[in-house]
Amino acid sequence: MWLRGVLPEDHLSPDTKSAVTVGVGLVGSMTALVLGLLLASAKGAYDTRRGELTQMAANTILLDRILAHYGPETGEIRAMLKVAVARMIDQTWLATGKEAGLLNSQTAGREVIFDKIQELTPSTDAQRAMQSQAESMAISLGQMRWLLFEQSGTSISTPFLIVMVFWLSILFVSFGLFAPRNATVVVTLLVAAMSVSGAIFLILELDQPFSGLIQISSTPLRNTLAVLGK
Fold it and tell me: Which of 13, 110, 108 is nearest to 59 (CA)?
């Protein structure tokens, strides 16, 4: 709006406005398309990680039940498994608010559980089968955790985000350039800017599913913790 007051009159002619409208229409189309793709991609990644966390919780319960059916000698392993889940919840959702527990690269505690399963000495065919299943489940849980660890980084490029903001800035400059100076126009542009900013904020929040305002719920792991060892 300030720029409109300092430009020569011929820069605000109907022909100029028509040319600017065509150019801005192209930028607006690209911006809308990219915003939609980014939002769909972020939401898809968010749902994938939430599904992987739920699957991990279910597999943890299944591992506990397999160990329970093996016999009382697995009591120590089941207790270690429960402690590991409790620590994971605390470090991920309570302690720091960052992807620290679930996605921590330290594996010592989890490897001890696998080693303890291997140290079991089955005396029947049923116990040997359950030991084999428990080892497979422990490996599967490790694979899921490492998969979440590898997905912990951001998938949105900073230069790409800068270009996106630049495109949006061009759009709002063009809006203000030919808009009259009154409160209705100012409020309308402000609401539009807040709406677009909200979309970008939503994308960035979905890209960090274990921190921020839109984070994955810890309910699956808490439900798992409630039934472990019983």
Answer: 110
